[in-house]
Amino acid sequence: MSLIDLSLPIEEGMPVYPGDIQTSVRRLDDPKIIEAGWLAHNITMSLHAATHVESPAHSVPGGKMLSEYPLETFIGEATTIKQEDIGRYQVNTPILLVYSGYAQWWGKEKYFSPPPFTTEQAEWIGESGIKIFGNDTISVGDVKIHQIIQEKNILIIESMCNLKQLLYQKAKLTLFPLKILNKEASPVRVVAEIL
Fold first, then answer.
1. Phi and psi at residue 180, in whole multiples of 5°?
2. pLDDT at position 192
3. Where are the domains positioned within the chain?
4. Which CATH superfamily does the domain covering 4-9+47-194 fall into?
5. Using CA atoms, how far apart are residues 25 and 43, in angstroms rounded to an integer?
6. Integer-rounded Cα radius of gyration of the chain
7. Helices in 56-186 by DSSP H: which ranges?
8. Given this model, what pLDDT does residue 173 score?
9. Counting CB atoms within 10 angstroms of each CB, which of 107, 136, 171, 187 has the fewest?
10. d(Cα 104, Cα 8) in Å, to the nearest integer?
11. Are 21 and 43 in contact (CB under 8 A)?
């Protein structure tokens, strides 16, 4: 079995959405820990940093929190298409991934200005019958775009990578958010196996 990693790395100083806290990864320097021979770190980050999954509660008042979804939600067949093919491609899988190519700009200023998803594209995604929508941009758009999609109880994965390797092929996707209770988002490790 060959797995494809669709997740960006979490590291000190990585790009974050404007207004989010910067990610900090620090070694614990308490003498008791060091003298005992332990290596231990703390991490401080936004739940929306790097590759992450968002529940409807992120944009829809009263929407479901991430911890309300059963584990089975996070495994399924996925179809990957180019962003310009939204609305022109039949999707028959519970997961839709959209490739824009913007993951190549991770760590560069251009990463913060991806091609926006239009209202029409968001409506098509919302009506497509999927349970998860993922893409390789820092955000699918403003709160209106999020709401159009998330009002249909669709989870959104943002800041993915390596989607080009999956274009127009069916793949099994596995992603598990951290078990953070009553929150709208979580960092996630997403892997794919081409079927």
1. -100, 115
2. 98
3. 4-9+47-194
4. Putative cyclase (3.50.30.50)
5. 5
6. 17
7. 119-127, 143-150
8. 98
9. 107
10. 11
11. no
- Read off the amino acid at residue 75: I
Amino acid in position 24: S
Integer Cα distance of 131 and 155 in angstroms: 6
Q: Return the bridge partners of 156, or none.
A: 54, 133
Average pLDDT of the residues in 142-163: 98
Which residue's entry shows tokens 């990585």? 14
Residue found under tokens 């239009």: 118
Q: How far apart are CA 71 and CA 69, in angstroms?
A: 7
Q: Are 103 and 134 in contact (CB under 8 A)?
A: no
Q: In b/e form, how buried is each residue of 82-108, taking b as 16+ CB within 10 angstroms?
A: bbeebeeeebebbbbbbbbebbebbee
Is a pLDDT exceeding 90 seen at residue 19? Answer: yes
Which candidate, 124, 138, 172, places its Cα nearest to that of 50? 138
Beta-carbon-side half-sphere exposure of residue 105 (alpha carbons within 13 Å): 14
Question: In the 8-state DSSP scheme, what is residue 19?
Answer: T
pTM for this model (two decimals): 0.96
For tokens 């999954």, the residue is 53
What integer is the mean pLDDT of 174-187? 97
Give the tokens for residue 64.
């479901």
Cβ atoms of 147 and 59 within 8 Å: the answer is yes
Give the DSSP letter of residue 116.
Answer: P
Residue 108 pLDDT > 90, yes or no?
Answer: yes
